[in-house]
Design brief:
Elements lengths: L2 H15 L2 E3 L11 E3 L1 H20 L4 E3 L8 H6 L2 H4 L1 E6 L6 E3 L28 E4 L3 E3 L9 E3 L5 H6 L1 H8 L5 E10 L14 E11 L4 H18 L7 E5 L11 E9 L2 E10 L3 H10 L5 E3 L4 E3 L2 E8 H12 E6 L2 E6 L10 E5 L6 H14 L4 E3 L5 H11 L3 E5 L1 H6 L1 E6 L5 E5 L3 H10 L1
Parallel strand pairs: 3-9, 19-20, 19-21
Antiparallel strand pairs: 1-2, 4-5, 4-6, 7-8, 9-10, 10-16, 11-12, 12-13, 13-16, 14-15, 17-18, 21-22, 22-23
Helix pairs in contact: 2-9
The chain binds adenosine-5'-triphosphate.
Adenosine-5'-triphosphate binds next to strand 10, strand 13, strand 16 and helix 9.
């Protein structure tokens, strides 16, 4: 499928089915900000829950944190963001549009009439200048320099400034990590590609504190572990790869960095970054706060400033990958169906329950079954409207992995059919066993 085709199809499916809407749409929309609808919020929550489960609940060496978005302004001086969190911005003298200088090939003049029909004229660009991506606002009732604070552009700094709080309270020994999921804000010059690059987004970041000297080994461990997580979401492995940063790409704080990239329809792009940040952040916060940020191991009489291995993934970008990877159009019985082949663990609705007809108590039986599944925290949907084929198609588009039909035989032996969204195979299962049958497949 061509590049623009898939993205356009995802935007339209997302709106139609309630995954993602443009923010403030009735006012014409807000630039590159999106709202998650009933299905989207479930998909996104499932991504976050899978991340939290694997990074925090299934381990004894990572602790959770939920730091505030608003932080002391000195944090961003110490982190280097005030000085260096910039992109090179250029403005077109004709159309006045602003572009990122390092992303120019995709951009063309928005106003100048083309001399050659069908061709796009190039912008007349001015000199580049550095543009800081942090959103500024004011804390308290007085506006002015003294009250200026920033919306955080990453969650990581909350973990660094709380390093000792978390370590002391949890009595963790190095190596250990701090995990956070939360909003981040970047005033991107050229956002776009739907929810790939937005100005408000969510990150799931983990900072793993290690003894200097063991950092290379932990870096290798985390890059493999994070790749395994992406594959566990059902993303096609051939569409995932590592991209190691060369010396010119490395951020100022990083000794080593590798991206996990996904092959989008618009090319291979970063989905997650894994960085060896050395002791850069803790050292800078020591310098700016005047507080020591050292780990003291009284058992062996050691004290040192840990190095940090960071894993940083975009939640919204993961949602986009899941939608793009799952989207399929195929012929079924002479019809084209759109199907989202989402892994059952992330699918917003796990099961749809249908009575085949409105006769013989089928609707009552089906409603009761759907209620029982919901009571077991299996998000389920009851639908009796339209032909069974149309009801299946609606659920295929929503990514619902299992369609359960109550039919004439149900009254005789209490069995129902379960249809697999991807293979279209149907099996008969005793209604009393549907719950465990589904749970095995959702969590298995
Ligand atoms: P990029 O090079 O794409 O701007 P980055 O290298 O600045 O990203 P990081 O600071 O490492 O990104 O952030 C970690 C993750 O957060 C990224 O891999 C991406 O998934 C996500 N992310 C970063 N910026 C955005 C954004 N503007 N919109 C959505 N997700 C983002």
């Amino acid at each position: 499928m061509a590049e623009h085709d898939l993205m356009e199809k995802l935007v339209s499916l997302s709106k139609r089915r309630g995954f993602v809407f443009q923010s403030s749409e009735i006012y014409g929309g807000t630039g590159s900000v999106w709202d998650y609808g009933p299905l989207g919020v479930e998909l996104k929550r499932n991504v976050k829950e899978r991340w939290w489960s694997r990074m925090v609940h299934q381990r004894d060496d990572v602790e959770g944190l939920d730091a505030a978005i608003l932080m002391h302004p000195r944090v961003w001086e110490a982190s280097g963001h005030v000085e260096g969190f910039t992109d090179p911005l250029v403005e077109c003298k004709t159309c006045k549009k602003r572009f990122r200088q390092d992303q120019l090939p995709m951009q063309a003049c928005g106003r100048k009439p083309s001399k050659h029909p069908g061709e796009v004229d190039e912008c007349e660009l001015g000199e580049p200048r550095l543009f800081n991506l942090m959103f500024k606002t004011f804390m308290g009732p007085v506006e002015g320099d003294a009250a200026t604070i920033f919306l955080r552009p990453e969650t990581a700094q909350g973990s660094y400034v709380n390093f000792l709080n978390v370590q002391t309270a949890s009595r963790q020994k190095v190596p250990f990590g701090i995990a956070q999921i939360g909003k981040a804000f970047r005033n991107e010059i050229t956002p776009g590609n739907f929810i790939f690059r937005t100005r408000e987004f969510e990150q799931a970041e983990m900072q793993f504190f290690v003894e200097p000297g063991s950092d290379d080994e932990w870096f290798e461990y985390w890059r493999e572990e994070r790749m395994a997580w992406h594959q566990s979401l059902g993303i096609r492995p051939e569409r995932l790869r590592f991209h190691e940063h060369g010396p010119d790409e490395l951020a100022h704080y990083a000794k080593k960095a590798v991206d996990i990239e996904y092959e989008f329809s618009f090319g291979w792009k970063e989905l997650e970054g894994i960085h060896n940040r050395t002791d850069f952040d803790l050292a800078r916060h020591e310098e700016y706060s005047g507080k020591r940020l050292e780990y003291i191991d009284t058992g062996v009489g050691k004290r040192f400033r840990p190095f940090v291995i960071e894993t940083a993934v975009g939640v919204d970008r993961t949602v986009l990958v899941l939608l793009a990877d799952a989207y399929h159009e195929e012929e079924v019985e002479g019809d084209t169906r759109v199907v989202l082949r989402l892994h059952p663990a992330v699918a917003p609705i796990k099961a749809a329950v249908f009575p085949l007809t409105k006769k013989d108590g089928q609707p009552e039986f089906a409603r009761k079954l759907a209620d029982e599944l919901r009571a077991a925290s299996i998000p389920s949907f009851y639908d009796e409207a339209g032909s069974i084929g149309r009801r299946y198609r609606r659920q295929d588009e929503a990514g619902t992995p299992f369609g359960i039909t109550v039919d004439g035989q149900t009254a005789e032996d209490s069995s129902v059919t379960i249809r697999d969204r991807d293979t279209l195979e149907q099996v008969r299962v005793d209604a009393g066993k549907v719950r465990s049958w589904l749970l095995d497949r959702i969590h298995g």
